[in-house]
Amino acid sequence: MSAADRIPERLSWMAGLLDPGPADAVLELGCGNGVLAALLWPRLPRGHYLGLDRSSAAIATAVWRNADAVASGAASFRVVEVAKAEPERRYDRIVAVNLNGFWTGAAAELARVRGWLAPRGRLYLAYQPPTSDALPRIEAALRDKLHGQGYAIVGVERAPMRPMPALCVIASAD
């Protein structure tokens, strides 16, 4: 396996945490080159995956990596910023990995994303920062911003990864 083919540990971990049902709709914000999509869409035989990213180069790679899923209609990808996205359905699982705007920004995007969650849907915000001392600050900021936008925190998961540990805050809009 080449370095380009290696799956980052944080993405394998996220695929396990998300654990989508076979008919779930999954939205990934900042999907990059489609690695998490490749792990998820085979678990969605009656569901759908949508990946959004502002980079057209990343989306082109994601489409290439997931060509079978795109051809079958099981997955789709769009070049768009979260602030400008208009998904056409509600999602059972929404995930973002290392999108700093959710904990550093004004939380306007959290308000938008809230309306995209299906009843009993979950938002997964995961981070593996360059230094482990950032994790408590990230978690506190996420809790504050999520509560401020009417979310309930339903779980906080941590994983001891290399080179740094990871954190995922799971929230609900119900």
Description:
- With 174 residues, the chain is α/β, with parallel strands linked by helices.
- It contains 7 helices and 7 strands.
- Strands 3-2-1-4-5-7-6 form a 7-stranded mixed sheet, with helices on both faces.
- The protein starts with 8 loop residues before the first helix and ends with a strand.
List the defining traits of the structure above.
7 helices, 174 residues, seven-stranded mixed beta sheet, Rossmann fold, 7 strands, alpha/beta
- The CATH superfamily is Vaccinia Virus protein VP39
Which term fits the overall shape?
Answer: globular
Radius of gyration, taken over Cα atoms and rounded to an integer in Å: 15 Å
Strand content: 25-35%
Briefly note the CATH topology name: Rossmann fold
CATH class: Alpha Beta
Largest sheet: 7 strands, mixed
Biggest sheet, spatial arrangement of strands: 3-2-1-4-5-7-6
H/E order of the elements? HEHEHHEEHHEHEE
Unreliable stretches (pLDDT < 50, length at least 5) are none
Summed up:
The chain has 174 residues and is of the alpha/beta class. It has 7 helices and 7 strands.
Topology at a glance:
Blueprint: H1 9-18, E1 25-29, H2 35-40, E2 48-53, H3 56-65, H4 67-72, E3 75-79, E4 91-97, H5 101-104, H6 108-114, E5 117-127, H7 134-148, E6 152-159, E7 166-172
Parallel strand pairs: 1-2, 1-4, 2-3, 4-5
Antiparallel strand pairs: 5-7, 6-7
